[in-house]
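Sharing a chain and its predicted structure for anyone who wants a worked example. Both blocks are below, sequence first, tokens second.
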Amino acid sequence: MSPDKVYTRKGDDGTTQLLFGGKDRVEKSSLRVTAYGECDEAVSALGIARAEALDARDTEVADLLLRLERELFVLNAELATAPKDVERLQPGVSLVTGEMAEALEVTIDELTGRFEQPKNFIMPGNTKLGAALDHAARVIRRAERAIDALARAEPVRPEARAYVNRLADLAWVAARFAEREDRQPRPRSD
């Protein structure tokens, strides 16, 4: 097989390799693979929102989302590493740091200070960008639930758990920020 092929055929048996895994393989349905797979989907959801931000010429939100996509790669690297190999990871590059979660809090506080907080239930869909961000926030919450399930079976560092929790909060706040000029009252769905 040529080295430039996309496929390896190694995963045809339902297994994959973790970072630093050597010849060890894990089931693709494992909690660890599910957790980083959900985070990978969150990266894609943020990418869709970033494309909408660029279409809306909202470079501030687009730049924020690009930062978050890159940071999710750090979380993914950590999740794709067996606990026995975590010491091989680099803080901020392949290992989530407490400062990363704190930086999300600073961004949340900065953004929420720039618009009036909604007082009612939010119905997604006021803008394409807001809807994409609301979807991304839900995908991130699903990733958080997968990380929680993993943490009940294997060690997961608290920094990683805090980061994904704040990230979902920030995605929701970013949706409200992006809609700040266009928010229209929508009927409540019961």
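Comments welcome. Residues 128-153 form the longest helix (26 residues).
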